[in-house]
Design a protein that fits this description.
about 525 residues, disordered N terminus, 16 helices, single chain, six-stranded mixed beta sheet
Length: about 525
């Protein structure tokens, strides 16, 4: 029998019944009390058992309190939906479900652990009233911390690395956080890294607490206590695989621990990125510095081993390229209507790379960390994607190949100019090849390797006319020329070609442009 909170007892006369369902009781009640309830409001009433005598059930009717609210925004964290994926996972066996964490008030899974870490710190006196909370974050933990700080009356300083999206930084400032930006491409021990800066600020700021989400075990406890039980309940205990991108390790380790306690056969798959140490460390036990290099994907991968990553819980790691992570993030939005962030694209692509292991009756849950609105200027920006070779475009003609720089004028030299002028232009514009003009016709070319060899052999040539040292003119093609034909013209001896556009302008195509279009 359903039990609900009630404010209004519609009848103080109970109906004695041995067993009855809700709808049957309401019908009986109305027949005995025909004027007691407005029939349009029947859906707001439920039968409540009142046990008065041994083995006898007495039922009364109560009205549900329709006024429902939360005391503050933190109470809305959790109970995020589980959504079946259809198109992106077409052809994959099993039931593939997305745990969409964007419905948390801070729009990410990090809300869960942010509040837990603060509450645990309060219990042991690490943070005092009016104090300052300091954390190094990719943005999402900072948002969760910011909401908690607003409700609890703390100040917040968030330290981010410079590869994080502008949207993340702006959102943190919007909710009152002070944002400090640090360089990405430095060692964790470098005083400029966001790990080091966070610790330094904590040492320098009175009445402050450094959260340290990487090693703060309240991080994974939050997911053991909330995310794991939710997934188990939502799948009715039928889950067979849990897949999630790994950064601090709190989500995968907390959820994984809970699920394996329920069923040790559940597989826990971590998604990593190229440039991170997790996969090799799991497979070999070796922390390999050679695995560490800059990468674009946000929110997953690390160049350290956080204490929150429980490698014994995780069955395997799968790496996903920056391009695939970005492309599949966009596919989730366009094919599933699920507008989520960069790590979600990595998570679903990593799962698809492993999907041959899935059987028909398997139930897979892939967790999507955060909201797509934080990546408008990056993943969901065509120009940003195109610049990195991530945009899946089929380029067929020379005109399409130069489209990305069609608004930029062609940099040229005159045959009468000096070699030193060519060097200056190459440096100024960051280019390697320049066509040479005489009487407004292309008569020659220079490229950096040719100039370099000239100056090594004869340094005095920097002060001679370009016409004395230039190579042959670059070949010229129409904008409609097929890329395959263009590629035949660009080779070891010819580093570029010129494309004549319909408006009479010319643009240059280099070997690099062709390579980028193929990536």
């Amino acid at each position: 029998m359903l039990r609900v909170p009630a404010q209004e007892l519609m009848s103080n006369k109970a109906v004695k019944m041995d067993s009855v369902d809700n709808s049957s009781f309401i019908s009986m009640f109305l027949s005995q009390n025909p004027t007691s309830i407005n029939h349009s409001e029947i859906k707001y009433y439920f039968a409540i058992p009142l046990i008065r005598k041994k083995n006898l059930g007495y039922l009364s009717l109560r009205k549900i309190n329709r006024m429902k609210f939360y005391n503050n925004i933190l109470e809305t964290i959790g109970n995020t939906p589980l959504v079946k994926l259809n198109r992106v996972t077409s052809g994959v066996k099993g039931t593939i479900l997305a745990k969409v964490e964007t419905t948390n008030p801070g729009n990410s899974v990090k809300d869960r652990m942010a509040v837990k870490m603060i509450e645990d710190a309060e219990k042991v006196g690490l943070i005092k009233p009016g104090g300052t909370i300091i954390e190094g974050t990719s943005g999402n933990t900072g948002m969760g911390l910011a909401l908690a700080c607003i409700i609890k009356g703390y100040k917040l300083i968030c330290v981010l690395n410079d590869k994080q999206s502008k949207e993340k930084m702006d959102i943190l400032r919007a909710v009152g956080a002070e944002v400090v930006v640090c360089p990405t491409a430095v060692e964790p021990t470098d005083p400029r890294s966001y790990y080091s800066v966070s610790r330094r600020l904590a040492d320098e700021t009175p009445n402050s607490w450094y959260v340290n989400q990487y090693d703060n075990l309240s991080n994974r406890t939050a997911h053991y206590e909330s995310t794991g039980p939710e997934i188990w309940e939502q799948t009715d205990g039928k889950i067979t695989h849990f897949v999630v991108g790994v950064g601090t390790g709190g989500t995968i380790s907390g959820v994984g621990k809970y699920l394996k306690e329920k069923n040790p056969n559940i597989k826990i798959w971590g998604i990593d990125t190229y440039g991170s140490v997790f996969k090799k460390y799991k497979e070999t036990g070796i922390f390999d510095q050679n695995e560490i290099y800059p990468y674009i994907t946000e929110g997953i991968g690390e160049d350290i081993l956080p204490a929150n990553v429980d490698f014994d819980i995780i069955d395997l790691f799968e790496k996903v390229t920056d391009k695939d992570a970005a492309v599949y993030t966009r596919r989730l939005a366009r094919e599933e209507g699920i507008f989520v962030g960069n790590s979600a694209g990595a998570a679903i692509k990593g799962f698809l790379q492993l999907s041959s292991e899935i059987k028909e009756d398997d139930v897979v849950v892939v967790l999507f960390h955060d909201h797509g609105s934080r990546y408008i200027g990056k993943i969901f920006n065509d120009d940003w994607m195109r610049e990195r070779g991530f945009l899946e475009e089929e380029i067929k003609t020379a005109g399409e190949l130069v489209a990305k720089h069609k608004d930029m004028p062609l940099v040229t030299l005159y045959a009468e100019e000096l070699v030193s002028h060519a060097i200056a232009k190459m440096r100024k514009y960051g280019i390697s090849q320049i066509p040479v003009l005489r009487d407004n016709k292309f008569v020659g070319s220079l490229d950096d390797s040719h100039v370099y060899q000239l100056l090594v052999d004869q340094p005095e040539l920097r002060d001679v006319a370009i016409s004395n040292v230039m190579k042959g003119a670059f070949p010229v093609v129409k904008s409609t020329t097929h890329v395959d034909e263009l590629c035949k013209l660009i080779n070891k001896n010819t580093p570029a070609a010129l494309v004549e556009m319909p408006n009479g302008n010319f643009h240059i195509v280099t070997r690099y442009d062709v390579i980028s279009s193929m990536s």
